[in-house]
Design goal:
160 residues; Rossmann fold; seven-stranded mixed β-sheet; 4 helices; globular
């Protein structure tokens, strides 16, 4: 098929993804007021969550665009915890850190994983993350956003 167009083009990212994810976060975590948005890119999820009343700090290694509270650095397990909730919309290599941090600090999380940090394909990666959360003392469930593209959400809460 060299030189030919694909028969089934990869769909572009759904423009509603940040709004849909923010709605899900608001529904599942109504008592949370302060959130860390991990690997938040341009800050679009921060904008949507802030519009819903959350105080959000976006972490990313370089500030991109939106006028939001932004920490221009990689998010690590050593970050002081000053949040009620962790969120991530396709946080790439920060996904595992998000889950581990949530467990370490007894915080809930919601994440829409995309690519893995260890070469696993998508379905095994999702199972791995859910198992990791469970092994670290979190109850992890899955939900799907009503959108095209990577739309599976892992929602974790401390057990008990």
């Amino acid at each position: 098929m060299r030189g030919r167009a694909r028969r089934h083009p990869v769909p572009l990212a759904d423009k509603r993804r940040f709004s849909l994810f923010a709605d899900l976060v608001q529904r599942h975590f109504p008592g949370c007021r302060r959130a860390y948005d991990i690997a938040g890119g341009m800050g679009k999820l921060n904008v949507e969550l802030s519009a819903r009343g959350l105080d959000v700090l976006t972490f990313d290694k370089r500030w991109k665009r939106a006028e939001v509270k932004y920490a221009e650095r990689l998010f690590t397990l050593d970050e002081p915890c000053d949040c009620d909730l962790l969120v991530g919309m396709h946080p790439d290599g920060a996904t595992r850190v998000l889950v581990e941090y949530a467990a370490r600090h007894g915080r809930p999380f919601a994440v829409v994983p995309c690519c893995s940090d260890n070469g696993m394909s998508y379905k095994p990666w999702m199972r791995h993350l859910a198992q990791l959360g469970g092994d670290l003392g979190l109850e992890v469930v899955e939900e799907a956003l009503p959108m095209d593209g990577r739309a599976r959400v892992l929602i974790g809460r401390p057990k008990g």
